[in-house]
Amino acid sequence: MSEITVKKLSEMVGAPVETLLQQMQDAGIHVKGADDSITDRQKLDLLEHIRTSTGTVEDTQKTGKITLKKRSNNELKLGGAGKDSRTVNVEVRRKKTILRKNTTAAPIATDAPAVESAEPTNAGTSRAEELGKELEAERKVREQAVIASREKAAKKAAPAKEAIKETEVVAEAPKAVDTPLPAKEATPSPEKVVEVPVATKPVEKKTEKPAEKAKPTPAADIKPTEEKPLEATPAKAKVSEEKVDVKADDKTESTTDTPAKPTLTVNKSKPEDQLDANGLPKDPKLRRAAVAAKARAEAAAIFKKRPSRVKPKPVVAPTPVKPVEAAKPAAAKAAPAKPATPAKPAEKAKKKPFQGRANSAPLNIKGGNGGRGGANRKGGKGRRGQRRNEPTVDQSTEHGFEKPTAPVIREVEIPETIVVSELALQLAVKGADIIRAMMGMGVMATINQALDQDTAILIVEEMGHKGVPVKAIDEESQVADLIENLGDFELHARPPVVTIMGHVDHGKTSLLDYIRTTRVASGEAGGITQHIGAYHVETDNGIVSFLDTPGHAAFTAMRARGAKATDIVILVVAADDGVMPQTKEAIEHTRASGVPLIVAINKIDKEGADPEKVKTELSNFGVIGEDWGGEDIFCNVSAKTGQGVPELLEAILLVAELQELKARTDGPAQGLVIESRLEKGRGAVSTVLVQQGTLKRGDMLLAGAEYGRIRAMINEDGKPVEEVGPSIPVEILGLSGTPSAGEPVMVMGNERKAREIAEKRHNKERETRFAAQQAAKLDEMFSKMRDGEKSALNVLLKTDVHGSLEALRDSLNKLSTDEVVVKIVSSGVGGISETDIALAQAADAVVMGFNVRADVSARRIASEAGIELRYYSIIYELIDDVRDALSGLLKPELREEMTGLAEVKGVFKGSGFGAIAGCLVTEGVVKKGNPIRVLRDNVVIFEGELESLRRHQEDVNDVRMGTECGIGVKNYDDVQEGDQIEIYTRTIIERTLEK
Questions:
Q1: Quick one: which residues bind GTP (predicted)?
Q2: Domain 790-889 belongs to what topology?
Q3: Residue 480 is inside which H or E element, if any?
Q4: CB under 8 Å to 718, separation ≥6 — which residues?
Q5: Fold classified for 474-491+663-777
Q6: What's the pLDDT tens digit per position in 798-824?
Q7: Residue 691: enclosing H or E segment and its boundaries?
Q8: Pairing relationship of beta strands 723-724 and 695-696 according to DSSP bridges
Q9: Which residues make Cβ contacts (< 8 Å) with residue 954, sequence separation at least 6?
Q10: pTM over 0.90
């Protein structure tokens, strides 16, 4: 077995040593350098590896074919209308096969006779040379393929401005041989010359939708060769076919018949031994000429069949490709074909004949078909079918109008309160834009949050619009339109409405009790009035209606409402007590309402009564009696004995007669809500004072934000009545809810309008309440940031009537201080329900009921949750309990009291005690264990604890003034002579709220 070095093998095959070493390494042959030897077996393995890697293993040996494949991807946009517009992926595959001569069964037949005649001793060397030749042949084939591909690329890049000629390659041999060519694909020729006939078969495309316009592409510009005649060329040299497959995403398939390829036919004029392994002449010049001719023929065929390039703009409608007539083979001595000059694209478009509707370019419009007269219609343009050959461009179905350049400024009407979503609707923007603008102004809000008028106007102006404030629509004017014309009714005298006011326990209710000859005061809890009592009394001189108001400080709002609804005010003052705070308040309410004032000095029967003193005190507030030259009437009465009561009633009727009180008795009724409450089994119960007209059972009533039809009317004695006239109080049932005290009441003839007005008022109240809550939250947040966290007492309050609820809310809120605050998490009228207990549990609140009770289910849930229910019937007790609870939340006060003072006379050092101060007690008592302060020059330099106290080497508990002692200060040794030691005590004192 012969061996050869790698370097020598590289010289034989004509390949670089580095390339050969890399190929050996890839083939699994382990060599270290160029001087290493390889065997014949390793050479065969190397050859097998090279053939396998290049795809020429057995097929090359058997058929002599070398196949080159190339693939490229591209995208085309199909100009469909609407949803038909899509992008198509086009994949172009090119396949080229090069044939070579295969004269013997052996892979390489060159120099076969020499191999056969070789001696056996030289078999190894001949085999190595044969392998080297095979490698060289393979390398040359690859070089030819590379040259062919480069020439093809150069032809494609050259501008197609010159005439394209059909090329005939003629190779004349010096000695012609009449032997026929053995190649199967060789084209027969009448003359013994080499011809390259260019024949193209018709190209057929089967597509569902045309993707692009196929343009006939002229062949490459190939000039006839002027080289010397070829002595010998391979008989079976052939350029393989090129196949183009187009695959689209919309399942469009294009099948292209492979056209006949130009075949290079050469007359065999030389013996076979003058050809190399590739069937080419060994002469370098002839070899170059043959390779150039073959490359030109391949380039011409490829250039003829290449697909037309896609132009992005303009989009031209695809047209079917006309079959190209096969070029007839030229005669042996025929002249070259006349070159065809390619036309420019613009001229080509102008000269193109009209091809009908099927070939018209679709108008590429996004999302639409372009209207009736579009390019998709027959004729291409408009209804009349005018010719339209100009290319179409992409258009949009959107309107051709642009937005106005000037900003749109809207004028928005802003009511007192407006929700963010409603404001966004008026501005024609999204709610998020409003919220973003508010965030830019430093305000956090939600889409359902109500804004006040000033804030809304600022936001509107910030967004570039104009805000117009709208005054609140006077609902009374709307109601007036619905009420019948009342000017035609006759006015009659009506009874006066008298309100009794004064300080608590001055005898207001007792006086009214005597007048009514009943025991009203005994029925009130604690003997005090906690509601507005409305009564009417029939006297010998006529009817008088009385409103009894509470005198407690918590019922300020009740007294104010009583003063507004009255014609005359009776101010009750106790003769033995004089003017009190609520007396002053009653005078202020009376003066504000502008009604006459009658002063009743009560309890004149008691010892120590001094009516003159009361007159003197009242004169300080502008209340002067007639006997003193004033306008106010004074009456001395006794609610217990009845002294002066008839004179009081006579004075009331006299003042009423002077006022000439009149009202209509016919037509729809109007009045005022005195009190309202919620009763179990009866629903909302409201006490109404009729001021005008006659109120009847079954009337549609509107009271504030509540409405309803009257189901029943009950007088103060608990008896049902059918109708009541002016100045008469009555309880009504049938309203949708409990209206607030002081709300006006009117009878409506239209139920639908009454419901609309009530709902409008309800929404307004809700928005106002929500805005107030938001403001309270912000104020609370800022106050927390400023003052820190406050201790809070959460309270859930339920009362029997609206007036008591209002009074309790005001009183509890007044208990709040800078350190503690009362938070009423919920309040309402009626009994305590399960919902109230659940809310109290969530808010950790105390449940308080004033004259109400919890139902069975609420009591059960409260006991399970451990929530205490507190019931009250007297307002004093409720307020006092809340005050005590707030006092428990107050931080205790820490007070310091100095008990003794000692002066340091000397300092002694002890090994076990450290510095001991010898002191003289100058003030008070020094006690062991008390906190101390060390003063030096009247400045505190240390605070600590008195650790040891001795007198004459004995431990003592205290040392009094004028006695010497030794004092040891804990953890302090810097005591000096002349210092003072101050002994004091700390005392913790519980704080309470002032009443």
A1: 502-509, 548-552, 602-605
A2: Rossmann fold (3.40.50)
A3: helix 475-482
A4: none
A5: Elongation Factor Tu (Ef-tu); domain 3 (2.40.30)
A6: 988 887 888 888 888 888 887 888 888
A7: strand 683-692
A8: antiparallel
A9: none
A10: no
Could you tell me the two tokens for 267?
Answer: 């007359």
Closest CA to 137 of 8, 42, 15: 15
- Identify any residues that bridge with 414 across adjacent strands, giving them in sequence order: 469
55 has pLDDT over 70:
no
Distances from the Cα of 664 to the Cαs of 493, 595, 694, in angstroms? 8, 21, 8
Burial 417-441 (b: 16+ CB within 10 A, else e): bbbbebbbebbebebeebbebbeee
Residues in binding site:
502-509, 548-552, 602-605
Q: At a CB cut-off of 8 Å and minimum separation 6, what does 378 contact?
A: 356, 357, 360, 385
The amino acid present at 859, given as its one-letter code, is R
Residue ranges of the binding site for GTP: 502-509, 548-552, 602-605
Pair 41, 325: CB distance under 8 Å: no
Q: How far is CA 414 from CA 458, 459, 471, 966, in A?
A: 11, 11, 9, 83
Residue that wins the pLDDT comparison between 435 and 578: 435
Map out the domains of the chain as residue ranges.
55-342, 411-469, 474-491+663-777, 495-660, 790-889, 893-989
User: Per-residue pLDDT for 145 more than 70?
Assistant: yes
Helix (H) or strand (E) holding 686: strand 683-692
**Does pLDDT of 104 surpass 50?**
no
Name the DSSP letter for residue 273.
G
**Selected residue with higher pLDDT from 144 and 524:** 144
User: CATH fold of 495-660, please?
Assistant: Rossmann fold (3.40.50)
